[in-house]
Amino acid sequence: MYRLPLFDHRVLDLTDGASALTGRLLGDLGAEVIKVEPPSGDSLRGTDGFQALNANKYCCAFDVSKRPDVLTRLAGLSDVLIATAGSIASEGMRNANEALILVLLPPGGSPADAVAAVGAVGLALWDRRRTGLGGLIEVTADHGEATATDRAAAGATEPVSTLTGVTAVPASPWRLSETPLHLRLPAPALGEHNRYVLGSLLGMADPEIDALSR
Amino acid sequence: MTTLEDLRVLDLSNSVAGAYCTKLFADHGADVIVVEPPGGSRLREFADWFRLGTNKRSVTLDIGTETGRRLFRKMVEQANVVVESFAGDRMEAMDLGYTTLYGIKRRIILTSIPSDADDLPQTGLLAGLNAFAATAIAVYNADAYEVPQHIEIAAQDCAAFAAAFADRIEAPPIESSPFRMSQIERLSGPAPATGEHNHEIYCGEMGLEAGDLTRLRAAGVI
């Protein structure tokens, strides 16, 4: 039996809303994905779309703008950092960790962008084994002509974000013979893993964690 | 900046999905070899072939012949990935299935995208993008931890997954790779002519003699 392809890799996911799909897919592939979320919560929290976009992730909630140093320290312990272009995460993060792979997504959260980003991360990891260096991946937003593909023909009923009632978490569309992908974790509660991330990983004492979590 | 020249992909596919999957490897510098029938891949009839074939090399080979299959297995020894789009168990029937390839190359990644992926061109591109993503992660994992994989991608699954997250299914751009990397150069070479690299690969890299190529050509194998 083999472990999942990214079993010993850590991903920081700073994205919000629909852009969170890249992190979900890397989580499906076995990475430890830590969603860094503002104390006010992701804009889709409370919707079923949130569940589908954030399954297989941990959540650490704190105000990055007040404590950029905490984010920098986390980046030093991570392999990949995902952010939306123009948001707080910048090239500067790579100064703390030259092996870091920084992924900048265009706004909009297109599923095709998320899939492209995952492939780019694979190439970057291959390259990093040879050079020891990470790099910057910029996913470009220039899609081909908008497709006329009928969503019903594609087997879907409603977008997850508008579903109500039963939570639907669509499984990854990739079949891997040796390491089948599956849902290991439901989407996390806000700040559910603060103690693990801030305490176990960064070595903060409880009072400091409590102060950050407020 | 580096390239991915030590990452070799053999492309047996004759679908938009397969060609787009391997194009994304080729555009970022991987060594992609299109292995096409002596008459040329049927994809060459498509107006978009010159976009799908960028930065690849081409050899002709009839894997319907035993000699062709023997040569292909020899190529697998030096490859990281094989991409194919045959229907059903055609690869097994030619003794080129996952078990056989794994026996030749322990870290092989076999990516199968059945060619019904092209029923709609846009879903073909989306399936190709998904195949690229899963294959890129798997080939890294194979390199780092010696894990082989047989990856199976169905266009319908990819479209349904995308549709669950968006009102409109967007296909990736066929013109160029949808991402830039600071550490890996993005190439802009042309698509190869049919069999353009036969001599370079068969003689230069696999040790055949010019006379062998003449005989193989006369027998219709290349």
Describe the 3D structure:
The complex is a heterodimer of chains A (about 210) and B (about 220). Chain A has 7 helices and 7 strands; from the N terminus they run βαβαβαβαβαββαα. By secondary structure, chain A is of the alpha/beta class. In chain A, strands 3-2-1-4-5-6 form a 6-stranded parallel beta sheet, sandwiched between helices. In chain A, helix 1 packs across helix 5. Chain B is of the alpha/beta class and about 220 residues long. Chain B is about 40% helix and about 15% strand. In chain B, strand 1, helix 1 and strand 2 form a beta-alpha-beta unit. In chain B, helix 1 crosses helix 6 and helix 6 crosses helix 7. The longest helix of chain B is centred in the middle third of the chain and has 25 residues. The model of chain B has no long low-confidence stretch (mean pLDDT about 95). Chains A and B meet through helix 2, helix 5, strand 6 and strand 7 of A and helix 6, strand 6, helix 7 and strand 7 of B. Strand 6 of chain A pairs antiparallel with strand 7 of chain B.
Features:
heterodimer, A: alpha/beta, six-stranded parallel β-sheet, B: 222 residues, alpha/beta, 9 helices, 41% helix, 14% strand
Total DSSP E strands of chain B: 7
Q: Tell me the overall shape of chain A.
A: globular
Order of helices and strands of chain A: EHEHEHEHEHEEHH
What percent strand of chain B?
A: 5-15%
Q: What separation lies between the terminal Cα atoms of chain A?
A: 43 Å
Biggest sheet character of chain B:
6 strands, parallel
